[in-house]
Design brief:
The protein is 22% helix and 32% strand. It is of the alpha/beta class. It has one domain: 4-Layer Sandwich (Metallo-beta-lactamase, Chain A), CATH 3.60.15. It has an eight-stranded mixed β-sheet. Bound molecules: zinc ion (ZN) (2 copies). The site of one zinc ion has 5 residues, from loops.
């Protein structure tokens, strides 16, 4: 009995609180801006807190909030403050300095820090010039994953993604690239296909896409999932879209369980 309780407390659980990108439409499956809740032991670490989460932090009850960048679909949920420490890079803090967040923590770049028992390494990526973004390589309970909801380009993808159990990426667009060049830098969102290519290069066999764009949010869910599954197979990657409330539990040992919410 005691052993069972212990196994449960050691499990690492990722809950996709929201899976909607920066778009006007939403659906039952993709109702709120993309956000991931990491639970291990008593920690509840919320990664990103977009405008849809304003006034809803009480229910999430995070022990820490970690931001990828300052775009409103990732940070504006903090416009009335936060009930816990908030971690963000210096560039992100400069853009949201007006938010009444009391406990502000500086997220270093390319250097790991421990937050509530999980190790975070912020990796700078190309996405926006105005609101520079990072992706997070996270390890906890001997598991590793990469969370990258907004990305135009990931420098040294093989190094950044090497050895992870699952890649959680940008589902804004499946095939059509939404990358533009400005001042010699890449901005916007790369395709799911390009990200599957990074996974293949880094020998990552599992990819989940969040931050879903309009074609996915509006489209026929079954057809979209089937199309993504086939694309994944072509790259040797098991791939799916996350919906709000979906949960990924890494069990003690090597197993994992994917629980669909809707
Ligand atoms: Zn976004
Ligand atoms: Zn963004």
């Amino acid at each position: 009995m005691e052993k069972k309780a212990d196994a449960r407390s050691r499990a690492l659980t990722l809950t996709f609180l929201g899976t909607r990108g920066e778009i006007d439409v939403h659906s039952r499956r993709h109702r709120r801006h993309s956000s991931l809740l990491i639970q291990c032991d008593t920690a509840r670490i919320m990664v990103d807190c977009g405008a849809d989460w304003l006034g809803r932090l009480g229910r999430v009850a995070p022990t820490a909030v970690v931001l990828t960048h300052a775009h409103s679909d990732h940070a504006a949920g903090l416009a009335a403050g936060a009930p816990c420490p908030v971690y963000a890079t210096g560039e992100t803090w400069a853009l949201i300095h007006r938010f009444p967040v009391r406990d502000r923590r500086q997220m270093p770049l390319k250097k790991s820090i421990m937050i509530d028992g999980a190790t975070f390494t912020a990796i700078p990526v190309e996405h926006s010039i105005r609101a520079p973004a990072v992706g997070y390589r996270v390890s906890a309970q001997d598991r590793r994953f990469f969370y990258l909801p907004d990305v135009a380009a990931l420098p040294n993808a093989s190094d950044a993604l090497g050895g992870i159990d699952v890649y959680i990426g940008d589902g804004a667009t499946i095939r059509r690239t939404m990358v533009r060049k400005r001042d010699g830098r890449l901005i916007g969102h790369t395709s799911v296909v390009a990200q599957l290519g990074w996974c293949k290069q880094a020998a990552v066999h599992w990819a989940v896409f969040t931050h879903c764009g309009s074609p996915i949010v509006r489209g026929n869910a079954r057809k979209m999932h089937a199309a993504l599954w086939r694309l994944g197979r072509e790259h040797g990657v098991e791939a799916c879209f996350a919906s709000d409330g979906d949960r990924l539990t890494f069990l003690d040992g090597h197993g994992s369980r994917w629980t669909k919410h809707a």
